[in-house]
């Protein structure tokens, strides 16, 4: 945060000089324009064939001198501004680390197979964000093959999101109708939120659409009276304020533009759930996790350099320090072996014993190569009967 504040101060200084230079230039040019217009009017008012008087020549010479001086002064101030702008770049270089190679382990991306996985993740991100042409071009250059059907859901989702941004809910309602059974099983509130927006839109049009709003409510809203009782009551109460306007009613919160953003988020969440996907793309999740982790890695790197410790990455598949990424980046349960007191990894996964207790693979290997007793109960069993657990 201190680094950001330091750069921010330099930016404020630059912006202040920009404003000062602009105001000074406008005043100077405005004064010169006034003098030149005055001189022009004076010359135009003279007879066509008359010669310039000594006074007019003197005034013209003075104005020209002022124009040259003002131009030179503005140019000098502009040149001086370059030094202030360059200080911002120096401040960035001073307060931020330009090279992150020392805190990155690139062994994960050295093989062609893993590079293809990375390319595929990037392509999927483009498809999910609606940039289908960019994703297809990248897939073509990377030699990746994508099934057309795998892209169709993303195209439809992004098309519906664009319609919602434009205030059109019809395509979203049609999507809800096609997936109503699954949405009902999920307990989704998407359809109600869409009909609420339609109803409120009619209410906002005033008394001329009150009858249409009432008809719409009778057709589409009764089925939500049980699951969304309070919201349903609020919507019905808005009919009392149609003639006076919703702005001054107790239900003006229903006019908040946030409701449109909320319904878009709800649609995206439900659509991804039906597709078996997370709301955010894997690439976005990785980038966000990296943004959280990077400052911690830079800090530990500086400490290790001060203590002359080389190589912050170990041979184990883990970070040199523990970083809390929060619940948003936690997608499965975390297992810690009660025997070795170590967190499970891909190479050391959790295993389920016949008796139902769970220990890590390494702990199982250390117990015995033949029959053994469970560390938590007296049941004897064979290590071969243990099964790997997948979270």
Question: What oligomeric arrangement do these chains adopt?
Answer: single chain
- Integer average pLDDT: 84
Strand order of the largest sheet: 2-1-5
Distance from N terminus to C terminus (CA atoms, Å) equals 37 Å
- What does the largest sheet look like? 3 strands, antiparallel
Low-confidence stretches: none
Per DSSP, the total helix count is 13
Strand content: under 5%
Number of strands: 5
Keywords: Cytoplasm, Metal-binding, Zinc, Zinc-finger
GO molecular function: ubiquitin protein ligase activity; zinc ion binding
Pfam family, one: zf-RING_UBOX
Main location: cytoplasm
In short:
By secondary structure, the protein is mostly helical. It has 4 domains: 2-93; 147-275, no CATH class; 280-313; 332-391, Zinc/RING finger domain, C3HC4 (zinc finger) (Herpes Virus-1).
Descriptive report:
GO terms for molecular function: ubiquitin protein ligase activity; zinc ion binding. It is found in: Cytoplasm. One of its GO terms (cellular component) is GID complex. Keywords: Cytoplasm, Metal-binding, Zinc, Zinc-finger. The chain is mainly alpha-helical. It has four domains: about 1-95; about 145-275, no CATH class; about 280-315; about 330-390, Zinc/RING finger domain, C3HC4 (zinc finger) (Herpes Virus-1, 2-Layer Sandwich). The protein has helices at about 1-45, 55-95, 110-130, 130-140, 150-165, 170-180, 180-185, 190-205, 210-220, 230-235, 260-275, 280-305, 360-365, and strands at about 350, 360, 370-375, 380, 385-390. The strands form two sheets. The protein has a three-stranded antiparallel β-sheet. Helix 1 (about 1-45) packs antiparallel against helix 2, helix 3 (about 110-130) runs antiparallel to helix 4 (about 130-140) and helix 8 runs antiparallel to helix 9 (about 210-220). The longest helix has about 45 residues, at about 1-45.
């Amino acid at each position: 945060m201190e680094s950001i504040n330091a750069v921010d101060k330099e930016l404020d200084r630059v912006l202040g000089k920009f404003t000062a230079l602009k105001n000074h230039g406008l005043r100077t040019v405005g004064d010169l324009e006034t003098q030149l217009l005055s001189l022009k009017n004076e010359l135009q008012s003279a007879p066509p064939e008359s010669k310039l008087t000594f006074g007019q020549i003197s005034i013209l010479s003075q104005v020209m001198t002022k124009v040259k001086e003002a131009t030179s002064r503005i140019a000098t101030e502009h040149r001086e501004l370059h030094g202030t702008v360059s200080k911002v770049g120096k401040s960035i270089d001073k307060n931020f680390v330009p090279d992150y190679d020392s805190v990155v382990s690139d062994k994960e991306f050295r093989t062609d197979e893993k590079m293809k996985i990375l390319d595929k993740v990037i392509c999927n991100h483009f498809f999910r964000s609606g940039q289908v042409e960019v994703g297809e071009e990248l897939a073509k250059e990377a030699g990746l093959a994508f099934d057309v059907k795998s892209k169709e859901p993303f195209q439809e989702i992004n098309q519906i999101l664009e319609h919602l941004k434009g205030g059109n809910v019809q395509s979203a309602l049609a999507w809800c109708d096609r997936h109503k059974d699954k949405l009902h099983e999920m307990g989704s509130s998407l359809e109600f939120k869409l009909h609420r927006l339609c109803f409120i839109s009619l209410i906002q049009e005033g008394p001329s659409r009150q009858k249409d709003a009432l008809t719409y409510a009778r057709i589409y809203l009764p089925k939500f009276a049980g699951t969304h009782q309070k919201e349903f009551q609020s919507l019905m109460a808005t009919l009392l304020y149609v003639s006076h306007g919703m702005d001054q009613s107790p239900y003006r919160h229903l006019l908040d533009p946030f409701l449109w953003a909320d319904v878009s988020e709800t649609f995206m969440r439900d659509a991804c759930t039906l597709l078996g996907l997370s709301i955010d793309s894997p690439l976005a999740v990785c980038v966000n996790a990296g943004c959280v982790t990077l400052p911690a890695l830079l800090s530990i790197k500086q400490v290790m350099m001060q203590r002359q410790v080389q190589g912050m990455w170990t041979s184990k598949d883990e970070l040199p320090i523990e970083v809390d990424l929060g619940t948003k980046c936690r997608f499965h349960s975390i297992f810690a072996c009660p025997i070795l007191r170590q967190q499970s990894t891909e190479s050391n996964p959790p295993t389920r014993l016949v008796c139902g207790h769970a220990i890590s693979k390494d702990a199982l290997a250390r117990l015995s190569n033949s029959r053994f007793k469970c560390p938590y109960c007296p049941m004897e069993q064979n290590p071969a009967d243990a099964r790997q657990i997948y979270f």
